[in-house]
Amino acid sequence: MNQKALKTLEYNKITELLEGFASSSMGKELCRNLTPLDNLAEIEAMQQETADALSRVYQKGSLSFGGVRDIRGSLKRLEIGSTLGTGELLSICSLLENASRAKSYSRRETENDTGDSLDPLFELLQPLTPLSLEIRRCILSEEEIADDASAGLKQVRRTMKNTNDKIHSQLSSYVSGSARTYLQDAVVTMRNGRYCIPVKAEHKGQIPGMIHDQSSTGSTVFVEPMAVVKLNNELRELEIQEQTEIEKILAGLSETAAESLEMLDDDLKVLTQLDFIFARALLAKAQNATEPLFNTEGIIDIKKGRHPLIEKHKVVPIDIRLGETFDLLVVTGPNTGGKTVSLKTVGLLTLMGQSGLHIPAFDHSRLSVFREVYADIGDEQSIEQSLSTFSSHMTNVVHFLEKADRDSLVLFDELGAGTDPTEGAALAIAILSHLHAQGVRTMATTHYSELKVYALSTPGVENASCEFDVETLRPTYRLLIGVPGKSNAFAISGKLGLPDYIIEKAKEQISQEDESFEDVLTSLEESRRTIESEQAEIARYKEEIQTLKEQLETKQDKLEQRKDRILQEANEEAHRILREAKEYADQTMKIFNKAGQESMTARELEQKRSELRKKMDKTAKKMALKTPEKKKSTLTAKDVSLGDSVKVLSLNVKGTISSKPDAKGMVFVQMGILRSKVSLSDLQLIDEPVITSPSLQRTGAGKIKMSKSASVRTEINLLGKTVDEAVAELDKYLDDAYLAHLSSVRVVHGKGTGALRKGVHNYLKRLKYVQDFHLAEFGEGDAGVTIVEFKK
Predict the structure, then answer these.
(1) CA gap 267, 126 in Å, rounded
(2) Is 546 exposed, middle or buried (0-12, 13-18, 19+ CB in 10 A)?
(3) Which among 22, 155, 733, 790 is most buried, taking Cβ atoms within 10 Å?
């Protein structure tokens, strides 16, 4: 990619922004040196890396690479066997700790998480934890080695401390003893690495020792007393030993690091590359950028693209198309209308995309891969080369025409400007025609009306304009493709106060054809504004309709949910009430059976019967409350008579009317063995008869015989039940069948292991009202069915 285009389109400012998001010096270096690529596979790979890094940033936050130091020089010294200093070893340690953090950052939270393009890089990292821990253990800072770094160092430093204590003890005796009067100050000081005391010059003979220094005035000499000379000598020897131990420790650490030289080099390269990739991701996040889709057909389709160097709250997004239905776009409009920004936006976003950077535009924006981008933008007048503005532009044009091909993008700003308008327009048309014939993707801005006509009349060439609001004298910076722009010179001049007679005089100077063309453009502009206004209104109506539709659907869903909940609650309540009624009925049946066996008196029986009726009436009222209005009957006293078959709506059971309606519209209904008073509004006539035996016949000794509904089935199926479940169900069934005066019934228990059949037979043996039971005949169920015969 030619450097002139990079400079003209201010690509270097993008790399400066990118550099600010890198953490390491080597990562910043990669950002500075980033240049656009022209290989589709490499571009898509870099775009995928940026996208994957951005996804990780949104999921887990950013990853810092500040601990990645440039250790390339240290690695070279390790390669030749040199010993590294504390600072270099700490830099290696920092690198390894950064590798460990990056390794932890890369771990997937769940096994179902699919990998991305960064996984291979993260897998290459080798944190070398033992080495980093050992460096941290031995080296506290660049100036300090830990006492525990080695046993020898620990012993030397312990001895040094003891020697120091002895020296201070000896010198303290001089400072606080009888020699105090000979001293200038009561302090212990150090000269040339040896402990001394400040003695007055006139008393230097009173304290025997070695003089190491003298004050600038000569009134004080610094004497090392003979008593501590030997101790000071020992201390110096210990300091030499300490340095020797430190050198051994650093040599050992360097040797250990050298064993992992290749892994350290790999970690440095991988972390630098990751820093570079995550810098691209952070730039994309800051610019709210998206990944463009690339092609090699020369198609550009930028949706709501924003110039990345203009502040977010000021930039106006533009839509730009080129290369699909037309390969030459002529942009017209007044000065300061945004033509040049549109031109730079196309060029800069193309360069950014081919550098693996996301672009500030909507999703699914498309860019093409160009081998070269040529840009002639701005005033490049050169005093040194004696070139005018026109000459400098023509120099660029000549170069473009020599080099540009179908894989190039050419951008012209004010093509043909700086010379006679007629000749300039003719030159511009000739240049654009040549590039158009070559199939070169070209975008040019101009003021010339001739170019507008050329774009309107030439296939594959399209007009575009930068919108300008004449009323406010402000550009809107919107790019309108397919609409040629007006210069608006007369309108702007009038708004700024130029007299009308001058404007009219100017209009007389232009040809009738030019004036008609401007009128056509004015008409087109007015039509476009009207259509846009209507489209905006239609879009607003659509949005309102969609909102109302969503509100209606939400309301309908709530109603359905409420309806389902009410029905569920009603069903649950009905089942509960019916269950209670069934339990009352079962309990009463047992009482009546017991009455028949234990000779219960008629009064006691009538009392039980009355209690049951009250409970059933109470249950009926509950059921009536839960019954919807639409299920109420419209029966009157004239519609019913004794013996009519009816259905009690609230209980969902059938029965027979056994009394005439009273004044309140209440009748007695016989439901099996139960007789209850029910309102006519809770009854519904049915066609099929219900056979009941409502009579209660007294026999001798006050005993009572009762009958059961004749609608009881003549067979019970116990298949699949346990013995206990089967016996419990069989007990109730046989009671009902016996009360219904059935002579015999069939009990289906199956063959199986025979356990169920045996349990049934054992139970039947204990029943007093069972006359006999036996297995069915062949063809009627044989060993799987038992026939039970009741007593007469």
Answers:
(1) 6
(2) exposed
(3) 22
Half-sphere exposure of 518 toward its Cβ, with a 13 Å CA cutoff? 17
**What confidence tens digit (pLDDT) does each residue in 173-223 have?**
777 776 777 787 888 888 888 888 888 888 777 788 888 888 888 888 898
For 222, the enclosing helix (H) or strand (E) is strand 220-225
| Residue 410 one-letter amino acid | V
Residues 6+ apart with CB under 8 A from 17: 283, 308
387: which DSSP letter?
B
Helix or strand or coil: residue 719? coil
Given this model, what pLDDT does residue 621 score? 59
Question: Positive or negative, the Cα torsion across 228, 230, 236, 238?
Answer: negative
DSSP assignment letter at 682 = G
- Sequence-separated (6 or more) residues with CB below 8 Å from residue 21: 31, 278, 279, 280, 282, 283, 286
- The whole-angstrom separation of Cα 665 and Cα 640 is 11
In sequence order, the 6+-apart residues with CB closer than 8 A to the CB of 150 are 138, 245, 248, 249
Separation CA 525–CA 736 (nearest Å):
94
Tell me, what's the pLDDT at 689? 47
Q: Residue 69: what residue type?
A: R
Nearest of 252, 366, 239, 352 to residue 299 by alpha carbon: 366
pLDDT at residue 627, as a whole number = 43
SS3 letters across 430-476: HHHHHHHHHCCEEEEEECCHHHHHHHHHCCCEEEEEEEEECCCCEEE
Low-confidence ranges of the chain (pLDDT < 50): 380-387, 512-513, 515-516, 625-630, 689-710
Do residues 666 and 677 make contact, with C-beta atoms less than 8 angstroms apart?
yes
Query: Strand 328-332's sheet: what is its strand order?
Result: 372-376, 408-412, 441-446, 328-332, 461-469, 474-481
Radius of gyration of the chain from Cα atoms? 52
197's tokens: 């005391």
Angular region, 192: left φ>0, alpha ψ -120 to 50, beta rest: left
Cβ atoms of 485 and 477 closer than 8 Å: no
Helix/strand/coil (H/E/C) assignment for every residue in 227-278: HHHHHHHHHHHHHHHHHHHHHHHHHHHHHHHHHCHHHHHHHHHHHHHHHHHH
DSSP 159-204: HHHHHHHHHHHHHHHHHHSGGGGGBSSS--EEETTEEEEEEEGGGG
Q: Residue holding tokens 């953090």?
A: 101
Count the alpha carbons within 13 Å of 189 in the hemisphere toward its beta carbon.
19
Q: Given this model, what pLDDT does residue 278 score?
A: 95
Cβ burial, residue 426 (10 Å; 0-12/13-18/19+): middle
CA distance 677 to 617: 7
Are 344 and 319 contacting, i.e. CB atoms less than 8 angstroms apart? no
CB 745 within 8 A of CB 716: yes
